[in-house]
Design brief:
The complex is a heterotetramer of chains A (about 450), B (about 230), C (about 290) and D (about 325). Chain A has about 450 residues and is of the alpha/beta class. In chain A, about 45% of the residues lie in helices and about 15% in strands. Chain A is built from 13 helices and twelve strands. In chain A, strand 1, helix 3 and strand 2 form a beta-alpha-beta unit. The longest helix of chain A has 25 residues. Chain B is globular. In chain B, strand 4 and strand 5 form a beta hairpin. Chain B has a domain of about 120 residues: Rossmann fold (3-Layer(aba) Sandwich). With about 290 residues, chain C is an all-alpha fold. Chain C has a domain of about 200 residues. Chain C contains eleven helices and two strands. A two-stranded antiparallel ribbon of chain C has the order 1-2. Chain C is globular, with a radius of gyration of 19 Å. Classes of the chains: A alpha/beta (about 450), B alpha/beta (about 230), C mainly alpha (about 290), D mainly alpha (about 325). At the C-D interface, helix 4, helix 9 and helix 11 of C face helix 4, helix 5, helix 12 and helix 14 of D.
Chain lengths: ~450, ~230, ~290, ~325
């Protein structure tokens, strides 16, 4: 009751503000097109680290919706692309341009958490609607009570927590040690993304009484990580938790191998660790049995475990990806980033937008926000397995999807296999690293 | 041998030489004297090609030098010993001499030229392996002269050879230059030490604010107020 | 307290890293010392050479040594090109303009590489053995890099000290005008220097691509460190550059293990700043 | 002189009316770009105070970052108003400038060496921010804690127009300071230093003192610019506010415009920002990387063909047409 009144008040306030800002969206509604700003990094280091794949997923979803006549069969989506160039200040400039010059109704995308954190604040202040598909840092929402920013994607902290839970669950059974006797090391790129995941690792480890022997951040631009490897060797961890982008994890793995780092399990968390093709190009069989965490790449899920109709969409995504971008890609190797762009925009087009138009009278920021708050997709209702229900205004993480969860994958015989949570697993995990791995403890 | 007609030159918007006409015959020694800032050094740089003349003609042994770069002028047989000696301080004495014989014609005759330079300046032979920067001022001037001789020039341009040397060394230096002259080289020298230089040369020019003010045989000039003018710059 | 064995390992890693840094610094230092212009984009030329080796080896299947030779040739050509097209017109300009023209080249190379090859990072995978010595592991690839940079240093030293053109290069670096008066065309000496410096970039490219992934922003990580090593070693002083590489690498490596990776670099840069005041002519030259 | 003044007044009037001019829907974006131009022009002007006297610093990112981080940290941790925080930031930056500039002057570190020393200082500050990630946020950067509503004390406003006028005033103040320094007694002296250090010293100018003064002024103004930028963007990050990238960007803009003239830094900054935005918008996602490639190419060409900067070269040409004689006397 109280939340409702507060929401109504907020809506009123926001509505008044929207009148001042301008009735642009109402005009657009008559033309029956919806302009959506699609903001990813097409240049700079982030583009290869997954941003481009997100954009491909988003683009395929927009094409898909338009080919079927648009949202509700009549509102065509007009995408306007923006390039953040992997730089926070450019991301801010592009957001300004998309919102104020191109007058997009929705701003969607954002790969890097380092961009999402300042962007969310600025866009929300302008009372514009922001739909984050990829950036995972919990700092985007934490305590900021954003009203117009929503994210179906799980948070970095959830990544970090899940990966520790996974090891704790299997410690006795596979690693033959009580969880509290395991030695964990956490290394992370010190940007928004790595910091957040590492925090999740640390919190969960503390929670479960696990022993963290080393926690160290590094900058993705570091030209040499051999001293970090030496420190790790000195700390003798059983399990290494690593969060990084790509050139930096390649450098780390190479130096770790050269310097003889030995582990019983290696767990990466998305981004660079999810780019199987890159990892295999650089390290071949050496990366066998490495783990990564991500929202589930849709094609890896068993369609039978999802709601009816969702599985077909996944097939559509795989078909389009192969036709447009990489005909030879093995289905399992399509990066989860593609799914993030594809699936999370699907939630927007299929759930939020129709409700905003039919129930809230259009697709202005307020209608969209109101519609998003009513989103209630049960688990298994999206291509990536999770449901969608956003934390309400006033909540510490207002705007974050409460039902999102990542999953743990392992490279087994050159493919990603879903190994955890057990409920959705498609294969049992291989723990500890078998002797065939050059990183295996001897 | 060398003839300048109506040469004007300068840097950027600044003109240092105005309409200079000057002549050096083969076997002669000629001096250009004048106060500080009168354009003497610019004159030398124009002849050796470091500064391009804006107007006028430069002819050496019947060939026009107009538009030639410094490294091309050397090939015609003009060696320029620049103001401040400009030896290569971190190269050894021997390497300095080797560099002096850079152009192919001179490089072929390297051993012979070096023997001649060592005969003229025996101290350089003793210091052959030392870095040139460690030599005394007088020795450095010898090296600069010797290095110029290595290119087997016909005409030597000397820019302020006595600068920065103690008076007793200046006398010795002029003695050396006289010996170089006796070897058969033609010399054009710029000097502030007018009294000494006039004893050395056949003819002299007085340069003032970029213009030739006076010209004549050295013996005749030294008795006029030429000397005073050159010092005071009236 | 950290186990001494790991300090030793850090020291060894430092030596191996110094091979990488010296490779980058030697060619730049030659150019910097002679032409007296900092090529801010030097490491980006190395980046271009790395791409060449990558494509030749991974796409066209050339053997690595042949691709390496091609890289050296490309480096020399790039050196010539940069000198002719960018440096020559600004030889007489203010130092800041010279600095910035090559800075513009840096922007250009980074974004043109993005345009041509996208931001994908690419790796030449090479299975070379790893040596294990008393609980420490030595990367064979890095040992080779170190050995070649040592050879390159000696080679350049001999070239500059013992050959006629090398001596002329040193002479030009000391007094360009005086060398013109000797009959040497400074432009030609500069061209030789830029070509040799560029060829060194090619050598570096061939050796770095087997240790690092190449991407358009490769230069950013190494650029500043490379300039500082050149100055620290003394301009045009090959032995100095090598020694400076070792000193900086050791600080970075040991500092990284004892404190943290970034602090290793912080200490290295602070040492550089202080050395500039104490020994501006380079590590091996006393003030005077 | 008179027509110049009229043009100037007209331009100022247009700028003052900027936010109310009819621009259709572009207003917010245009204001955003203009605010950036004002702030970065101010910073460029601060840089040129040193640059024009031969003190080419590649480390102004250090001053910028120190200023921005000081204010943001003080506000976030202690709620200290940016007005006071700005003073603290400027003071701290001056101290850093002094610590670097004094030995540089004392030990005659000039030219390329000065540039590289300052470059190292910029890297040290950037790396320290990253290394001290526990309280600076590391590479992640730091968000300015939002004040609940618009506040002069917190220097936070939802409306861009406030920032627009504030940055306009800041920019004008920067020009005024530049002009005063240019006119002051120090001018002749400093120019003498730029030409020839020993000559200047021998005529009795205290070289070190002048260098210190100008360096500290330049650094603290840069810090103020950093504060303004942080307050507007409400987010600080070591890569955008410290390190080489941003230092080079400042220098580029100034040299491009011309560092010896009052409006040179502004012209250069406006041009680089506008060009960057324009190329990005024009090329969009076609020919990825092409926009920046052209930008780099233009920078090289400008520096080769307009060495005095765009504004400087233009002014020379105009002055040359009007008074050819005066130019000749201006050079040695």
């Amino acid at each position: 009751m109280r939340t409702l009144r507060m929401m109504r008040m907020l809506l009123g306030l926001a509505g008044a503000a929207a009148l001042i800002v301008g009735p642009a969206s109402r005009v657009d509604a008559q033309e029956q097109t919806i302009k959506i700003g699609v903001l990813y990094d097409h240049t700079g280091p982030f583009s290869a680290a997954g941003s481009l794949n997100c954009w491909r997923g988003a683009k395929m979803m927009i094409d898909y919706v338009n080919e079927r006549g648009g949202v509700l069969g009549k509102y065509k989506i007009v995408p306007i692309d923006g390039d953040s160039q992997s730089k926070a200040e450019v991301a801010i400039n592009e957001a300004e341009r998309l919102l104020n010059v191109e007058k997009v109704d929705i701003l969607a995308g954002v790969y890097s958490s380092a961009h999402a954190v300042p962007l969310a604040e600025k866009v929300d202040r302008q009372k514009k609607f922001l739909w984050i598909t990829t950036a995972i840092s919990s700092k985007v929402f934490d305590g900021r009570n954003l009203q117009y920013t929503f994210r179906p994607q799980p948070t970095g902290t959830q990544f970090g927590e899940l990966s520790v839970q996974y090891i704790a669950d299997y410690a006795q059974e596979r690693l033959k040690k009580a969880p509290k006797d395991l030695r964990l090391a956490i290394i992370y790129e010190d940007g928004a993304y790595g910091t957040d995941v590492a925090l999740g690792n640390e919190l969960k480890a503390k929670d479960l009484g696990l022993n963290v022997v080393l926690k160290e951040g590094y900058s993705i631009n570091a030209p040499d990580l051999s001293s970090l490897v030496t420190k790790l060797r000195a700390a003798r961890p059983d399990v290494l938790y690593h969060t990084g982008y790509n050139p930096d994890i390649s450098l780390f793995l190479r130096q770790a191998k050269e310097q003889g780092l030995r582990l019983r399990a290696y767990i990466g968390h998305g981004a660079g660790h999810s780019q199987l093709d890159k990892l295999k190009e650089a390290f071949g069989k050496d990366v066998e049995f490495f783990h990564t965490l991500d929202p589930i790449a849709s094609q890896l899920l068993d369609p039978k475990k999802l709601r009816p109709g969702v599985g077909e969409l996944t097939a559509e995504m795989v078909k389009r990806y192969k036709a447009q971008y990489d005909a030879n890609a093995p289905t399992a190797a399509i990066a989860p980033h593609v799914s993030m762009g594809f699936n999370n925009l699907w939630v927007l087009f299929n759930d939020v937008l129709p409700r905003a138009i039919q129930k809230h009278g259009g697709f202005g920021p307020d209608a969209l926000a109101a519609a998003a708050r009513e989103t209630d997709i049960p688990d298994g209702g999206t291509m990536q397995g999770y449901g969608v229900k956003f934390y309400p205004p006033g909540h510490r993480f207002a705007g974050q999807n409460a039902r999102a969860f990542p999953a743990v994958f392992q490279i087994i015989e050159g493919k990603f296999e879903l190994v955890y949570p057990k409920a959705v697993a498609t294969a049992p995990p291989v723990l500890p690293l078998p002797a065939s791995s050059p990183f295996a403890a001897r | 041998m060398l003839e300048l007609r109506g040469v004007t030159a300068g840097y950027g918007h600044f003109t240092a030489l105005w309409d200079v006409t000057l002549r050096v015959e083969a076997g002669e020694a000629v001096a250009v004297v004048g106060p500080n800032g009168s354009g003497k050094t610019t004159l030398m740089r124009v002849i050796s090609g470091l500064v391009a003349a804006r107007t006028g003609e430069l002819v050496f042994e019947g060939n026009s030098l107009a538009g030639r770069k410094a490294h091309e002028v050397v090939r015609h047989g003009i060696a320029h010993v620049p103001e401040g000696r400009r030896i290569f301080p971190r190269l050894s004495v021997g390497d300095n001499l080797r560099m002096g014989a850079f152009q192919p014609r001179a490089r072929q005759a390297f051993a012979e030229s070096r023997a001649r330079v060592y005969d003229l300046f025996p101290v350089l032979r003793e210091r052959e392996r030392q870095p040139a920067g460690s030599l005394s001022g007088g020795e450095q001037q010898m090296l600069a002269l010797g290095r110029a001789l290595m290119s087997r020039p016909k005409l030597i341009l000397l820019d302020e050879p006595s600068m920065g040397l103690a008076p007793v060394l200046v006398l010795r230096l002029f003695e050396l230059i006289r010996r170089v002259r006796e070897e058969g080289y033609t010399i054009l020298v710029v000097e502030q030490n007018v009294r000494q230089v006039l004893k050395l040369v056949d003819r002299a020019y007085l340069l003032e604010v970029g213009r030739i003010r006076m010209e004549g045989r050295a013996a005749a000039l030294s008795e006029q107020d030429f000397v005073r003018k050159a010092y005071v710059g009236l | 307290m950290i186990d001494p064995i790991f300090l030793l390992e850090a020291a060894v890693n430092g030596i191996l890293l110094s091979g990488v840094l010296a490779l980058l610094a030697l060619g730049l230092n030659l150019i910097f010392g002679v032409v007296d212009i900092v090529w801010i984009a030097y490491v980006d030329l190395v980046m271009v050479c790395m791409y060449l080796v990558y494509f030749l080896v991974m796409i066209y299947g050339w053997p690595l040594w042949l691709a390496g030779l091609a890289s050296v040739a490309l480096g020399a050509l790039l050196g010539l090109g940069v000198h002719l097209l960018i440096i020559t017109p600004i030889l007489g300009s203010a130092p800041v303009n010279q600095l910035l023209a090559t800075g513009g080249l840096l922007f250009f190379l980074q974004s043109f590489a993005t345009f041509l090859w996208t931001t994908d990072h690419r790796t030449v995978r090479l299975a070379l053995p790893i040596l294990e010595v008393g609980g420490m592991f030595l990367s064979f690839v890095r040992l080779i890099a170190f050995a070649i940079s040592l050879l390159a240093m000696i080679g350049l030293w001999v070239f500059l000290r013992r050959t006629y053109i090398g001596t002329a290069i040193r002479a030009v670096s000391q007094d360009r005008e005086a060398m013109a008066l000797m009959g040497a065309d400074p432009q030609r000496v500069y061209l030789v220097t830029s070509a040799v410096g560029g060829a060194m970039a090619g050598v570096a490219g061939a050796l770095l691509i087997i240790q690092y992934s190449v991407h358009p922003f490769f230069g950013a990580a190494f650029g500043p460190l490379t300039f500082m090593i050149c100055v620290l070693g003394g301009l045009g002083n090959m032995v100095g550059a090598f020694v400076a590489s070792v000193v900086m690498s050791e600080i970075i490596s040991i500092g990284g293990v004892v404190i943290s990776t970034e602090m290793g670099y912080v200490i290295a840069f602070v040492v550089f700043i202080v050395m500039m005041f104490v020994r501006p002519g380079g590590l091996l030259v006393r003030r005077g | 002189m008179r027509p110049g003044r009229v043009v100037g007044a007209a331009l100022l009037a247009v700028l003052a009316l900027g936010p109310v001019l009819p621009m259709g829907g572009m207003r917010q974006y245009v204001l955003h770009v203009l605010i950036q131009i004002f702030v970065w022009s101010f910073i460029g002007g601060a840089w040129s105070l040193m640059g024009r006297f031969g003190l080419v610093s590649l480390g102004h990112g250090a001053f910028l970052g120190l200023g921005a981080y000081t204010v943001t940290l003080l506000w976030n941790a202690y709620g200290l108003t940016p007005w006071l925080g700005g003073v603290v930031a400027a003071a701290l930056t001056s101290v850093l400038a002094l610590v670097v500039a004094y030995p540089c002057s004392r030990f005659q570190v000039v030219g390329h060496y000065f540039a590289l020393v300052t470059l190292a200082v910029g890297e040290v500050v950037r790396l320290l921010i990253i290394a001290e990630r526990n309280w600076t946020g590391g590479s992640l950067g730091l968000s300015l804690r939002a004040s609940p509503h618009d506040s002069v004390l917190a220097m936070q406003f939802a409306d861009k127009r406030v920032f627009y006028y504030a940055s306009l005033v800041l920019w004008l103040a920067g020009l005024w300071i530049w002009y005063r320094v240019d006119r002051s007694m120090a001018r002749a002296a400093m120019e003498a230093i730029g030409e020839d250090e020993t000559a200047a010293a021998s005529v009795g100018i205290h070289v070190t003192r002048f260098k210190m003064g100008i360096t500290m002024l330049s650094a603290s103004l840069t810090a103020v610019g950093g504060v303004a930028y942080a307050q507007y963007i409400t987010y600080v990050n070591p890569d955008t506010l410290a390190g080489i990238g941003v230092s080079l960007r400042i220098v580029f803009a100034v040299v491009l415009g011309g560092m010896y003239s009052l409006l040179g830094p502004t012209v250069g900054t406006a041009l680089t920002i506008a060009l960057g935005e324009y190329l990005r918008v024009v090329f969009g996602l076609r020919l990825i990387g092409m926009a920046e490639t052209i930008y780099g190419l233009l920078l090289i060409l400008f520096i080769i063909f307009l060495p005095a900067g765009i504004y400087g070269s233009l002014r020379d040409v105009v002055a040359g047409l009007a008074r050819p004689a005066r130019l000749a006397s201006g050079l040695r």
